[in-house]
Amino acid sequence: MFGLVQGFLSLTFPVDCLACGELAGAEAFCETCARLVSPRAGQRCARCDTGVPGVHPVCGRCLVEPPPFERGYGVFDYVGPVGDAIRAAKYDARPEALPAVAALLREHLPPELRRDPPGAVLGVPLHPKRLKRRGADAPAMLARTVARGLGVPCLTGALLRLRDTRPQAGLSARERAANVAGAFTPGRRPLPGDVLVVDDITTTGATLRAVAAAAREAGATRVRVLTAAVADRADGP
Ligand SMILES: [Zn+2]
Ligand SMILES: [Zn+2]
Asked: Which CATH code, of 3.40.50.2020, 3.40.630.10, 2.40.40.10, 3.90.1150.10, is assigned to 42-230?
């Protein structure tokens, strides 16, 4: 009986902090970890938001090879409570972790997006096989919450993932780009002109570049991308 009640409680709301495992009661994080939740700070590329700028406001990669999106936004660091919560959702099957990440993302949306919202939001599509393995569609869930926060529609099925690409972990930047090249294609619905594509984690931005290119093919003329967490190559998934 106790197990049942405990099981029900942990499904209803967090019991252990998603980051450190200490008792957190009804909150997603314990008090200590909750204080550590803050958006990324420091010098970042004015275009992709993941690279580090040098003498120019944009990073070297964006200078040499501009991305097919107008602007990227990476809200939290993968190292920290939000990254821990994403890992808890992905690998520890904590069903409450994704809504917690989504709520934080909505709370900390870049002011630019609030001032100038897109026409629609969509998540980076997962391959049906991957979705079956994983159970939860993190990008779609985050996209829905972001769309609600911006008061715009959330689209599904506008882009498709053709290939079940192998995980990007452990691949070099070049291998990551090759792994996702051509992985996405326009779906059954046309895209509006101005879209925001949402993902849970980015490391080199290879997936975002590939999906933004597909969004342009699908009819979008302005593509921006938003990720909940930005990982360094060293700690990336
Ligand atoms: Zn904690
Ligand atoms: Zn850049």
From this structure: 3.40.50.2020
